[in-house]
Amino acid sequence: MKRCMFGSVFFILFNLCTWGQSKVDLAIENITLKPSLPKIGDGVIISYDVKNIGTAIVPPEAYTATLSINGKVVSFDDESPKLLLQQHVTYSKAAGSYHFLVESKKKYNWQISVRLKKIKDDNSKNNSYQGSFVAK
């Protein structure tokens, strides 16, 4: 019985090339609400990081980041920066500005989401977070 050396070499090279392939995985981290207990008249800022926890570099403009309050988009970015491995970018507001103004005593629901445009995210479970607070 003869062994085909070419077949074995191809199999080994194929496995080396595909084993441990780089994957994109964006994660939302370090979510903060300022002020932490908003009241009527407060301008509220919700800050968060988008971090590349995958094994591949994320190219520029590869994802969108969206922040919504009570279903209304208050922040949207589709000109995202390049993210190297373990690198993050912080989304917030410039000093003196805010995402929304608390106008009444009620419950406010927020949602943050990150969506890759043309690349598959290896773990989409860490791409969306939601929460709420009650203004006093």
Keywords:
mainly beta; 1 helix; four-stranded antiparallel sheet
Q: What's the topology here?
A:
Blueprint: H1 5-18, E1 26-34, E2 43-52, E3 63-69, E4 72-77, E5 88-91, E6 100-101, E7 107-116, E8 128-134
Antiparallel strand pairs: 1-2, 2-5, 2-6, 3-4, 3-7, 7-8
Organism: Runella slithyformis (strain ATCC 29530 / DSM 19594 / LMG 11500 / NCIMB 11436 / LSU 4)
InterPro entries: Ig-like_fold
Protein name: CARDB domain-containing protein
Describe the fold and architecture.
Helix content is 10%, strand content 40%. It is mainly beta and 136 residues long. The chain has one domain: Immunoglobulin-like (Sandwich). The strands form two sheets. Strands 1, 2, 5 and 6 form a four-stranded antiparallel sheet that branches. The protein has a four-stranded antiparallel sheet with strand order 4-3-7-8, with no helix packed on it. The radius of gyration is 21 Å and the shape is elongated. The relative contact order is 0.25.
CATH class bucket: Mainly Beta
Mean pLDDT: 88
How many structural domains can be distinguished in the coordinates?
1
Helix fraction bin: 10-25%
Percentage of residues in DSSP E strands: 35-45%
Look at the structure and name the CATH superfamily.
Immunoglobulins
Largest sheet: 4 strands, antiparallel
Number of strands: 8
Low-pLDDT stretches are 1-19
CATH architecture descriptor name: Sandwich
